Amino acid sequence: MTRKKFRAGAIGRTGKGNYGHGLHLSYQGIDDVEFVSIADEDETGRKKAAEQTGALRTYADYREMLKNEDLDIVSVCPRWVDCHEDMILACVEAGCHIYCEKPLAMTPVSADRIVAASDRARCKIAVAHQGVYLPQIQAVKKLIAQGRIGTLQSMVACGKQDHRGGGEDMMVLGIHLFNMMRFFAGDPAWIFAHVSANGTDM
């Protein structure tokens, strides 16, 4: 029996979130995937990404790529989230599954629209929260489930607390920590936050 060959593409924005953490390279070495096309409004970035991936065709406009290519899955790569909803919904409209750089969306409302559209179209969305698939994280999850380290009472997580700090650190690393805590303990019943800017409460 011949296995299906999946056709993949990627959307990047050089200088505006780029190609995330290399989401356009994630299909390399997968026998069942043929990387077909790259879209990037920046000509230099588009050329570089094509050389990295071996893309057969390139496009300045991702909408043209989605219109002209019969793709099964598309990486929505930019790290800047201002474009995610538009790009993802275009992919969903084209019938593509999506691998998206984190975070998924700028607001909960935007995320809800994305999820609702993908559900209607029966398109899958995977967000690049790969941390929970690390062997050591899987091992801890198993220990908790087995009760071998007792009942989980609380969790504390912190970012790198480097030069980025604050909201940027939360978006870059914190989102992985939040996802990991959900992986261990399930969805939270309630959330609160304290936000300040330059020492002033917001």
Distance between the termini: 60 Å
Structural class: alpha/beta
Look at the structure and give the mean pLDDT.
91
Radius of gyration: 19 Å
Give the helices and strands as they follow along the chain. EEHEHEHEHEHHEE
Number of continuous helical runs: 6
Number of strand elements: 8
Strand content: 15-25%
What is the topology, as strand order, of the major beta sheet? 3-2-1-4-5-6
Q: Tell me roughly what share of residues is in helical segments.
A: 25-40%
Major sheet: 6 strands, parallel
Shape: globular
Low-confidence stretches: none
Q: What report would you give on this structure?
A:
By secondary structure, the protein is of the alpha/beta class. The chain has helices at residues 43-53, 62-68, 84-93, 108-121, 135-146, 166-185, and strands at residues 6-11, 33-39, 57-59, 73-76, 97-100, 125-127, 196-197, 200-201. Strand 2 (33-39), helix 1 (43-53) and strand 3 form a beta-alpha-beta unit. The termini are far apart.
